[in-house]
Amino acid sequence: MRGQTEITRVEGASHVERAALTAPSDGAEAVEECDPLFVFIRTQPSNEWLPATVLRNDKGFVLTGRDLQAAEEFPRIWKKPRAPLPLETSEPGIFASGDIRAGAMNRVASAVGGGSMVVWLAREYLALT
Ligand SMILES: Cc1cc2nc3c(=O)[nH]c(=O)nc-3n(C[C@H](O)[C@H](O)[C@H](O)COP(=O)(O)OP(=O)(O)OC[C@H]3O[C@@H](n4cnc5c(N)ncnc54)[C@H](O)[C@@H]3O)c2cc1C
Q1: Are 56 and 63 a contacting pair, CB within 8 Å?
Q2: How far does residue 82's CA lie from ligand 1's centre (Å)?
């Protein structure tokens, strides 16, 4: 494990053989032999278009279900005489599925499954309204 380091170049003839590691603090580069290279990409939610009333966690992922009810702001912000439906956000009638949801599985099947659940849940929401 090496922190504060960027992989700035990958070299090799037919497969990965070397990686150039650069320290952003002083720009010093060291080339090290390696094989293979595992790239772990973090997620960052695109949530700027959502109303502020849709609660997010500290990383910007949308709170639903148990995570929503456990949030400190929940009792103040939730105005309905019922608990939120599964996948419902703090804004009644707005549901979240897929990677943007806090606690998401980050898998295609779970994003698609959540989306199809929301079709059914929207009908339940309308029946309660
Ligand atoms: C490198 C990589 C490999 C992966 N491999 C696998 C795998 O092997 N198996 C697996 O099950 N899962 C895999 N995943 C995870 C999987 O891709 C996600 O869990 C899944 O795509 C989530 O679906 P989503 O609809 O929630 O989000 P996304 O697929 O990210 O879709 C969100 C869409 O919204 C669009 N968008 C964003 N902001 C706006 C906006 N303001 N207005 C309009 N559109 C907007 C984006 O352009 C995007 O098209 C992988 C992910 C990555 C990054």
Answers
A1: yes
A2: 32
